[in-house]
Amino acid sequence: MEEVRVFPLTCAVQNYAWGKIGLDSEVAKLVVGGDPLAVIEVDKPYAELWMGAHPKGDAQIKDNRIAQTTLGQWIAHYPACLGSKVKDAFQGQLPFLFKVLSVNTALSIQAHPNKELAATLHAQFPEHYPDNNHKPEMAIALTRFQGLCGFRPVEEILGFLQAVPEFHALVGRDAAEELRSSVGDEVRTSQALKKCFSKMMSCEKKVFVDELNELVKRVTQEGAAGKDTSSSNGDLLLRLHSQYPGDIGCFSIFFLNYMVLEPGQAMFLGANEPHAYIYGDCIECMACSDNTVRAGLTRKYIDVNTLCEMLNYKPASASSKIFLCVQDPADPCVTLYDPPVPDFTVMKIQVPASVKEYTVASVDSASILLVIEGDATATSAAAFSDLTMRRGSVLFVSANESISLHVTSQSGMTLFRACSLL
Ligand SMILES: [Zn+2]
């Protein structure tokens, strides 16, 4: 039998507690779109869809004519499908994990180590850092997506230190003063910011819980009296506190940029960049790793020393944290989200209503293709037969294979594709 190199996948769903519930979740909608027989439970969270070969959620091959049952098994058997460059650079493994996330309650504030630090941490504390790889991540909004990313401009942090005495109390007068007097000197600012953040993160629990309760009480009273609480970031504070009462992470909103991404906008989370996802649905792509250093909004272990040492203390505006995508010069339907790491690139493919025959071009890397909107019949010389593509369909495409889409929906198609462009 001739080897088949393009085939559909049934992807793993993760029902983490923070996910959106039932059919509110984009993940659940895509699951039922891709498989109308799938049962979605109305009160269950559908947090993540994993499209890849990660051992904790290896995709099932949706074609019983293929001997292997999962994508991971198949790639192990046919590593040439990765493309020769990817196969060599990533030791025969698919270098990325492609995901859809539906976030209902905030995920922990975190940062991911670079390769060097990941190797050190893994060697020292394998129980907290399970592998030696870096974990750059990209999030592309599918719906309005809220998160935290990177340190705010110093003027904003100084503004909160002045307006929020409970926050000032945790940072302390000396560190706050050092930050104030450092303005204009990048190196000193970065040092002072590190000191301020470290002071807050190393406060004793009783101290920050008391200050947090005080702050929440004050903001609640001000809100009830009809006052504007934006100088204390009141709405976000109360929302996070209701999800994580007594958590140090509630104070980090005064340090970190609050991001609101419109659909199609992205943020790239490089090494040592503090970030959190708060609410919304997104496409996510990441290097294969589980190394996460947490900073709050979590019931898990916080490694304060590692965290405070590693972070990127470079203040910058929220708008500068939006990752710039570019039009593919070779194809007006394709938008490229190409981060400065070799592990992955994401493409958004928008086929306009006027185009009925569209070719998904070959790339010299294995890729995973997800339909977000629209219907088509897909034809490929490397597939067993024609494939029906609709919202939620996921295809694995080996390197150097193209696919012809015969679009049957009236309003065009939207697809996302992850690959590794070395
Ligand atoms: Zn992360």
UniProtKB/TrEMBL annotation:
Superkingdom, taxonomy of origin: Eukaryota
Keyword Isomerase part of the UniProt annotation: yes
Domain Phosphomannose isomerase type I catalytic: 6-154
Record: active site: 294
UniProt GO BP: GDP-mannose biosynthetic process; mannose to fructose-6-phosphate catabolic process
Gene Ontology cellular-component annotations: cytosol
EC number: 5.3.1.8
Molecular-function GO terms, alphabetical: mannose-6-phosphate isomerase activity; zinc ion binding
Primary localization: cytoplasm
Pathway(s) this gene product operates in, as recorded in its UniProt entry: Nucleotide-sugar biosynthesis; GDP-alpha-D-mannose biosynthesis; alpha-D-mannose 1-phosphate from D-fructose 6-phosphate: step 1/2
Top-level EC class: isomerase
Annotated keywords: Acetylation, Cytoplasm, Isomerase, Metal-binding, Phosphoprotein, Zinc
Compartments it resides in: Cytoplasm
Role noted for this protein: Isomerase that catalyzes the interconversion of fructose-6-P and mannose-6-P and has a critical role in the supply of D-mannose derivatives required for many eukaryotic glycosylation reactions.
NCBIfam families: manA
Name of the protein this chain belongs to: Mannose-6-phosphate isomerase
